[in-house]
Specification:
2 copies of one chain form a homodimer. Helices cover 39% and strands 21% of the residues of chain A. Chain A has 355 residues and is of the alpha/beta class. In chain A, 58% of the residues are buried. The model of chain A has no long low-confidence stretch (mean pLDDT 97). Chains A, B: One of its GO terms (biological process) is L-leucine biosynthetic process.
């Protein structure tokens, strides 16, 4: 089982080191190889996703990814900015199915912005399409407008698009995931305005007919953004396109109050996957040894489950994480009075011990 | 001063009646004419925005709008659905500047999903561009894909676009609004992915140089969706495009917990405007006389201020609304123990009395 380890920028190195430590403690035949990605790769090789890194990722069964990005690259042309690495990996590996759980851990209810009764027990699975939509749609660019409000003026444009099979395959992913949970799918779109959303909704309905045991409902994206705040626990599996999924999954993860705990998986049709924490590279706390490694450790668990077929090992990690929370260990982001403050490394060590 | 009164569907009739009552109580020379819009207009004339209604709106100084929409029109072709009326009015009247305050009223802090300390005193002004972006961008439709993941498959597509002058004018609106407040503007985009957003950001920076007294910062839309949950009070004026504004303004208004209190204004370059509550037509409670009319009454106040140049009258209404809240009147949506439950009509009467 080959794993490409791409720590990236900011806290990436620190949190990935702990996840690797946990993986090593499992004594499985895992072959891990590390490569540069993001800003550090740009610094070293002039590109955020160097050829060698992409090759390593493609040949691996799974990619364990830290985080990319730093203010200092903001001035670069877009194609050289760190986040292009993650877009490039998604595109080149065909990682169309993004799983982002928004879970509120019992012990961390207090960390949420929301009142405890609204958030306790929250367990949403957001499934975001990840290789289509306005993220990758062509044509896009700048030109002189020939119509619209100001013909003759400079304009910029992008293309939102989804084809029927692209929607079908993510729909199947959502319905199948729902079968393993509470058998409810909420599909989010903006069909009252967008052609793309109307096709999205039509195809969801069609595919839904193959899953008569799963209840499907539809919600407009603006309403979904509201309902997540108002009554997040009403959601179970939420499936949506790349752009809306970007916004809603971040909103949902912040609702839990402990985004430092939330893993993610991005899969292609052969279950090759990229696993990364839901949070970013946090350059402001990089190098201080205080970042929370649990989202990355839990991402490693998802990797064992989805790409490496090691369900037992995944469960072991997840149980260990629960245990360290019960034991009271907390990194700075989730610290509260009466708990034990742990550094990044101490948290990783505690998980290994709890295995 | 001519006002087109368009109550629309669902609770629209009930809430607009109360706002009209309040306007009448001001004894100003207001000429009000009512017309059908939305589903009721479709039922009567086969179109959600009949010619006569559009003409009335165009010739008025301002439009007082209730709400449109009902499940029973969901099956219609998109062009006949109620919400097309609001899109048609925005487009035909050129209402490019949408003002959506997200305010948390002192007495209603408890109604929010958020913890009181995060939300008390919240006062954000979201300025959303309203006639451009993917809402109106051509081309759009369905076709057979010639490239992408599945060439040959049916696909749907939409065009996101903004021209430089479209961004400039909304930027000026935002900076000028900020001058009257705390002199801070947060511009929200997705420049790490979208060409349109990159131009948006570039133009915001350029226009910002004409307002050296206003502080400008930029935030990615996914991060904005998170920060609104995490620390909403950090925002003051938030300016963004039509699509992101749709999502973020709804998220922000739900954060306050009292979306039934929040007005909105949509203006064109001659200060002609459409004024409507931030909430929808709520068909489930229509006809019961329990809807909250305050958002519509406060929208009427915005109308007096922005389109009719009657600042004193606007302030009178706003003070009256504060007063009825202090007096303890509450419609069902904001009711809590120890307050006085009021029907839609009783709430309107209370405001009139408090004038
Ligand atoms: C870094 C950025 C391009 C990316 C996205 O928008 O998809 C990120 O926000 C995410 O959600 O993984
Ligand atoms: C009804 C719909 C078309 C509209 C929009 O998306 O703009 C609504 O959600 C709004 O925000 O006013």
């Amino acid at each position: 089982m080959k794993i490409a380890v791409l720590p990236g920028d900011g806290i990436g190195t620190e949190i990935v080191a702990e996840a690797v430590k946990v993986l090593n403690a499992l004594a499985l035949p895992l072959e891990m190889e590390t490569a540069l990605v993001g800003g550090v790769a740009y610094d070293a090789h002039g590109h955020p996703l160097p050829e060698a890194t992409l090759k390593l990722a493609k040949e691996a069964d799974a990619v364990l990814f830290g985080a990319v990005g730093d203010w200092k690259y903001d001035k670069l042309e877009r194609q050289f900015r760190p986040e292009q690495a993650i877009l490039g990996l998604r595109k080149n590996l065909g990682l169309f199915a993004n799983f982002r759980p928004a879970i509120c851990y019992e012990q961390l209810v207090g960390a949420s912005s929301l009142k405890p009764e609204l958030i306790a027990g929250l367990d949403i699975l957001i499934i975001r399409e990840l290789t289509g939509d306005i993220y990758f749609g062509q044509p896009r660019g700048r030109r002189i407008a020939t119509d619209g409000h100001f013909p003759g003026a400079e304009e910029a444009f992008d293309t939102m698009r989804y084809s029927r099979p692209e929607i079908e395959r993510i729909a199947h992913v959502a319905f199948q995931a729902a079968r393993k949970r509470s058998k409810r799918v909420t599909s989010v779109d903006k069909n009252n305005v967008l052609e793309t959303s109307q096709l999205w909704k039509d195809v969801m309905v069609e595919v839904g007919q193959q899953y008569p045991d799963v209840e499907l409902d539809h919600m407009l994206v603006d309403n979904a953004a509201m309902q997540l705040v108002k009554a997040p626990k009403k959601f179970d599996v939420l499936v949506t396109g790349n752009m809306f999924g970007d916004i809603l999954s971040d909103e949902a993860s912040m609702l839990t109050g402990s985004i430092g705990m939330l893993p993610s998986a991005s899969l292609n049709s052969s279950n090759q996957g990229l696993y990364e924490p839901s949070h970013g590279s946090a350059p402001d706390i990089a190098g201080k040894g205080i970042a929370n490694p649990l989202a990355t450790i839990l991402s490693a668990a998802m990797m064992l489950r989805f790409s490496l077929n090691q369900e037992a090992a995944a469960l072991r990690i997840e149980a260990a994480v629960k245990k360290v929370l019960e034991q009271g260990f907390r990194t700075a982001d989730i610290y509260s009075e009466g708990t034990t403050r742990a550094s990044t490394k101490e948290m990783g060590d505690a998980v290994v011990k709890a295995l």
